Structure formats: structure tokens, C-alpha cells
Amino acid sequence: MLRSGVDILEINRLVSMKRDHPEIYQRFICRVFTENEIKEARDRISYFAGRFAAKEAASKALHCGIGILGWHSIEILSGEQGEPILHFNGKAALLVEHDQISEWSVSISHTDTLAIAFVMML
């Protein structure tokens, strides 16, 4: 069965949070992103916005909310060509195995103001 999920985020939400509430922003980053994602981001807000949208899109494709899975159970890192690669850990990995999902793909794009991600699973 083919599954899909999409999510879009206004990048300015993260920009405003970082500017107006830096301590809340830092807690948000640590809660949502893995150490590897944080290291790879090099503090680029557009990176975080795209990966946030991708995690939401992946949870939609898995037919559950991110609250059930936990933010760190979905990780998006860059491949050799800079392409986003979706990794599942913990509860998300168990769900992928249970639902017999054998293939997946993620695409992330952004402008100055918006980040969007689309996830397909088979």
C-alpha cells in the first residue's frame, strides 16, 4: 500500500522564537532533533524548519501523530549528495516493521519564508 504525508512550516516561527525566547528555542531544538541533526544543521534555521516538516510528514505517512512516536524516533540526515535520508529508530522503527513498510523517500524544499516536506512510503 502506498502512503504519503506532507507538512509545511513558516520559517519565521522559528526565527521569532530564537530572537524573542532563545532559551525556549534551545529547548525546542534539543527536544525535537537528535544530536546528529543538531550537529549537521550548523545552526541553520532553514535546516531545522525543513527537518521539522519532514518529521511531521513522516508521522502522517505512518498514520499516527508524532506524539505517539517521539521526535527522536524519526531522524533526517544528509546523504553524500546532500539529499535528505530518513531514518527510523525506537517506536517508529517498530511501526515501520509492523506495517511492513519496505521503501520510503523524503523530499524537503524551502524558500525564505516556508519549508515543506513530502514523504512517500510503500
What's this, in brief?
With 122 residues, this protein is α+β, with helices and mostly antiparallel strands. The chain is built from six helices and five strands, in the order βαααααββαββ. Helix content is 48%, strand content 27%.
Features:
single chain, 122 residues, alpha+beta, Ribosomal Protein L22, Chain A, three-stranded antiparallel beta sheet, two-stranded antiparallel ribbon, 6 helices, 48% helix, 27% strand
Major β-sheet profile: 3 strands, antiparallel
Q: How many structurally independent domains?
A: 1
Rounded to the nearest angstrom, the radius of gyration is 14 Å
Q: What's the end-to-end separation, in Å? A: 6 Å
CATH topology: Ribosomal Protein L22, Chain A
What's the CATH H-level homologous superfamily?
A: 4'-phosphopantetheinyl transferase domain
CATH architecture: Alpha-Beta Complex
Order of helices and strands: EHHHHHEEHEE
Class based on secondary structure composition and strand pairing: alpha+beta
Count the helices. How many?
A: 6
Number of strands: 5
